[in-house]
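The data are set out underneath:

___
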Amino acid sequence: MSFLPVLPVIVFFMMIIVGTDIQRGQLGSAVSMRPALVGATLGQLLLLPLIAVLLVWLLRPSLAVAGGLLLLAVSPGGGMSNYYCALARLNVAFSVTLTAVSGFIALLTMPILFATVVPAALRVEAFGVPVGEMMTRLLLFLVLPVAMGMVLRRLFSALIERAGSAIRAFGLGLLLVFLTLILIDEREAVVTMFGEAIAVIVAFTLLALLAGWACAGVLRLGRPDRAVVAVEFATRHVGIAALLALTTLQKPEFAAFGALCILFQAPFLALALLFNQKRRGRLAPQGSVD
């Protein structure tokens, strides 16, 4: 039995929940950091596909792992980055705004970048990347539900504010269900790719974190906001990537790679941020942290 028909519905509701978490006040305060927003967004669009292409050239993974990596690298930032930043008591407003901007521009950038990086990385013709269909699915399952969530937030702000923790917990629950269904559906692909997939995920995560930190350094951001940008670089939108892999591209193995990526990254990034938070706490009494 395939769970494919259920997955788009789950993604749609996940995106609505993401939209309800975007507050107008948060966006207003974070938009004051316009140079940082523009620089960090452009950095993701340029550096992450480049990192993915270089890893494919150097590590020569299977097509399933290479394609999954390339699809993730061109995907928008994932909402999990907001949870990580909240966990580490970083600038959540900045994180939410980066994720939102990344999501909305993905309508144009994701199909074009994927159609570009696949031939460059694999030295083959892009396997019939349907750019128009990708844009349509991104509009229906990313831009539209996020906009709906933002409207709901505006209309029922008090109710959503009171139930915010429960709504976010429900969103995380949907994500876990989504990943579980993919792993069950593609269990054979997961077993086959597991070893090389983990190696590629480790390399990509570390390089993405370093690229985000370096990009934020060029933008002259303080250490806490550098951490936000680094996390945003490393955390891709697995839900959208998997949806496109399963429906538009007809490559379920790419979705399996994405599921492995988020399952491995979640504890790694959470522990790294908690360590960083404790380190900042120890250093704070000795002087300000830049």
User: Anything to note?
Assistant: Residues 285-290 have pLDDT under 50 and may be disordered. Residues 187-218 form the longest helix (32 residues). The two ends are 54 Å apart (CA to CA). The domain at 7-275 is CATH 1.20.1530.20 (Na+/H+ antiporter like fold).
